[in-house]
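pls read this protein.

:::
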Amino acid sequence: MANIQSQPGYAGFGQYFRGLREDVGYSLGRLSSLTGIERTHLGKLEEGLVEPRDADLRNLAGVFSYNKSFDPVKFYLHAGRLPPPLRASESLVEVVRGYHSLILGYDRSSGIETKDPFGNRVGQILLEGGFINPEQLEKARVASEESGDGLLDTLIKQKMLAQETLVTLISFQLRIPVVDLRHVEVDPLAAGLLPKEYARKYNVMPTGFDVDGSLRIATRMPTDYQLSADLSSLTGRPIKFILAIGGKLEDLINRHYEPLLPLKEAESLPP
């Protein structure tokens, strides 16, 4: 998947890093002596002028880990990186639990249906993790409703969040594959397994096959297990949902459903 060239994944790291340093009460000089990182380089990190090196992150995490509130997962995500192998932390478990609280398409705490339940839940996780602030989230929600784009796409388009950070959060913490609709290549045989009327009604788009024969389907709601079961019955294939970002699924559906290979030819694929 190609990356969107909007802003680097570490764009918000400087402010986050400064907050961590101030929380523990260290000056740049003191932090330099503890980590072995040049003071001038630490200053550039805080100003967002340079990308943190792997060694920088390891050394800084080692110092900050003495702070009970330090979360290594958030630390690495703010730097636009995947954390090194970690034990399942309480914060990670809570994020995943919170994510599953909206899989049925409405906020159970309020009973209010949402147009983009998955996006809204991830938006809340981003807010709680300090990746965006309340004003940015509200502004993105309003813009999303006006444009018809998903909330997550809006956050990226308005440069409130780097795509690398979003993809890292979703793919690493929530274990959900992500696809950029602007660069995805659709296998016509896969698309031919699903009637276009069904694709348009449920806003889903088959994109290809995995090596085990399962059908990859782009969707905005990758945790709709009932839909996954229905699609499996309809296509005769195991289903693997992937989260669609970077565009409108409706546009992808319209582009690729005319013309299609006959359904019988698609069904001739080996299981």
In short: DSSP finds 15 helices and six strands in the chain. Residues 13-78 form a domain with the 434 Repressor (Amino-terminal Domain) fold (CATH 1.10.260.40). The chain has a mean pLDDT of 75.
